[in-house]
From TrEMBL:
InterPro entries: CheY-like_superfamily (IPR011006), LytTR_DNA-bd_dom (IPR007492), Sig_transdc_resp-reg_receiver (IPR001789), WalR-like (IPR039420). It comes from the Bacteria. This is DNA-binding response regulator. It comes from Fibrisoma montanum. One of its GO terms (biological process) is regulation of DNA-templated transcription.
Length: 261
C-alpha cells in the first residue's frame, strides 16, 4: 500500500507516519507535503498513490484546492480539527475523515475500512466528488434545537467511481463480510461507508426500519410478511435477496405499527 500525506503540522505528520507504520510495516509513505502548491506539483509529476491522508486546512489554503487543480482519482481520508457539527458535511457525502488530534484507534479503523474495500474490489481508485464536498463543507449545520435533518443522498462506490445515489432510490441496507451494502430499487448492490447503527441515525424512521442486526429496510421493500409459530415475522423483500430476513417476536409489534397495521 502506498500512501501520500498532506499535512502542514510537522508533529502531526510524524505521528501519522509512525501510526501508519505500526499498522502496516509494509506500507510505503511516498511523501509528506505541507502545502497546496507542493501537493499540486507532486501530483503533476507522479502517479497517484493507493491512498491519500489530507489535512483540510493547509498553510496556503485548503486541500480541496489541490483536487480542483489536478485530476486525482484515488481514495482520500481527510483530517480536520473541526468539531462534530462541521463533520456532518463529510458524513453526508460518505467521505472518511479523522478528527484531530488523531488517535491510533481511529486511524486503524479508517485504514481497515480502506483495506476491506480494497480486498473486495481489488485496487480501488474512486474519484472524489469535490463539488459535492465543498458544497457540503460550506453548508451551515442545524443547531441542537432544530428538527432532525436526515440524509438525502450518499456518495457510493461503484467500480472505480463514487456516484451520488438518492435515498429514495434505496430499498434496504444489509451487512456482509464486515461491510455495509445498500440494494437499490434497480437491483444494484453498493458499498456504504457506515455501519447500520450509524445509518439508523441518518435515515428517516418513517421510511426505514431496523429489522435486525443485519438489515435496515424501506417500507416499500416489504413484499410479503409471513407469521411464524413462535411470533417471529419473516419478510420477503424486493428486490429479492437470498438471505432470510426475520423480525423477532419482541419487535414484531413495533414493525406492525411502523407498517401502519
Amino acid at each position: 500500500m502506498t500512501i501520500l500525506i498532506i499535512e502542514d503540522e510537522t508533529l502531526a505528520a510524524r505521528q501519522l507516519q509512525t501510526m501508519i507504520r505500526d499498522y502496516d510495516p509494509t506500507a510505503t509513505i511516498l511523501a509528506t507535503l505541507d502545502s497546496v502548491e507542493a501537493a499540486t506539483a507532486w501530483f503533476r509529476q507522479n502517479e497517484p498513490p493507493d491512498l491519500i491522508l489530507a489535512d483540510i486546512e493547509l498553510v496556503d489554503g485548503q486541500s480541496f484546492e489541490v483536487f480542483e487543480r489536478v485530476d486525482v482519482r484515488c481514495p482520500v481520508i481527510f483530517t480536520t480539527a473541526y468539531d462534530e457539527y462541521a463533520l456532518r458535511a463529510f458524513r453526508v457525502n460518505s467521505v472518511d475523515y479523522l478528527l484531530k488530534p488523531i488517535d491510533e484507534a481511529s486511524l486503524r479503523r479508517s485504514l481497515t475500512k480502506f483495506s476491506d474495500l480494497r480486498r473486495l474490489y481489488g485496487q480501488p481508485s474512486p474519484a472524489v466528488d469535490l463539488r459535492a464536498l465543498v458544497a457540503a463543507f460550506r453548508t451551515p449545520t442545524p443547531s441542537d434545537s432544530a428538527l432532525p435533518v436526515y440524509t438525502e443522498r450518499f456518495l457510493l462506490k461503484q467500480g472505480s467511481r463514487l456516484i451520488p445515489v438518492e435515498v429514495g432510490d434505496m430499498a434496504y441496507f444489509y451487512t456482509e463480510d464486515r461491510l455495509t451494502f445498500v440494494r437499490t430499487w434497480d437491483g444494484r448492490s453498493l458499498v456504504v461507508d457506515y455501519t447500520l447503527d450509524e445509518l439508523v441515525q441518518k435515515l428517516n424512521p418513517k421510511q426505514f426500519f431496523r429489522a435486525n442486526r443485519q438489515f435496515i429496510i424501506h417500507a416499500k421493500a416489504v413484499d410479503r410478511v409471513h407469521v411464524h409459530f413462535n411470533g417471529r415475522l419473516k419478510l420477503d423483500l424486493k428486490p429479492i435477496i437470498a438471505d432470510e430476513v426475520f423480525i423477532s417476536r419482541e419487535r414484531a409489534g413495533e414493525f406492525r405499527s411502523w407498517m401502519g397495521d
